[in-house]
Amino acid sequence: MILGALEAGGTKMVCAIGNEQGEITERVSIPTETPDITVPKLIDFFRDKKIEALGIGCFGPIDLNRNSETYGYITTTPKLAWANYNIVGAFRQALNVPVGFDTDVNGSALGEATWGITRGLENSVYFTIGTGVGAGIISNGKLLHGMLHPEGGHVLLRKHPSDPYEGKCPYHRTCLEGLAAGPAIEARWGKKGVELADRKEVWELEAYYIGQAIVDYIMILSPQRIILGGGVMHQEHMMPLVRQEVTAQLNGYIKTKELEDMNTYIVLPSLNDNQGIMGALKLAMNELEYEKHRP
Ligand code: ADP
Ligand code: ZN
Predict the structure, then answer these.
(1) Which ligand is nearest to the CA of 213?
(2) How much is the average pLDDT of 151-167?
(3) Model pTM above 0.85
(4) 166 CA to middle of ligand 2, Å?
(5) Fewer CB in 10 Å around end: N or C, the chain?
């Protein structure tokens, strides 16, 4: 089966052709400009590939409510050219195939749960900690959407008593994204994350915030495994520090087999940065199934 996959990001669009085994046979990357400029290029890529369905993992916020008039739209994004843009409709009309749609980070969660390190688990969380923070959640075997979709980077955190930084989120200041995303690190310490590699206090504070958020996710969602992706996690110090923080902040309250080994409970992504595009393939497969069984 030939399937199309699109990872729609704020700076680039990754388009791929693959199959239901998650194998990618062809891929291109196209810079994200305005819909008028960019979407025709994407459609040109997919047009003659004989795909049976397309899956899109998309930056948000997006409308995932199938009963809504604006289902398949990018909604209130600060990337204004894309605000209120019917991205699913554009591809459906041009390619005339089913189009699966979800958030970029839900796509990554799905890729890992289908072919990667959370395969076979009914409950898992995938965080991306980069320019922003997002969380993709699989709960009882399904991507969690709820009334919109989780905005897992904006959970509110308690500040560390020694941290004078006010927080970068324009809505909440001290949410996880406001305290721990790449731009918050840069604003707090005056340098980019990559240039702060040898500053222990930077990564201890970072782990304190990420650990705090993870503890909240553990309490609410009871995930069987947690994946941490995104540019900030390229810092090698981070993973051990985060695991330590989670253990310390849980303080023995939950006792499960999974939590006994933090090295297998909190892990890096396993699909060589293909988790997002592979997840989009799975979104395409899921949409074909949905169309088959639609009433
Ligand atoms: P995006 O979130 O834009 O898709 P990334 O996940 O690569 O892209 O995140 C970019 C952010 O991560 C930037 O703020 C950057 O400073 C930070 N970052 C990237 N690499 C590293 C690194 N090795 N160490 C610390 N921070 C990093
Ligand atoms: Zn926020």
Answers:
(1) 2
(2) 97
(3) yes
(4) 12
(5) C
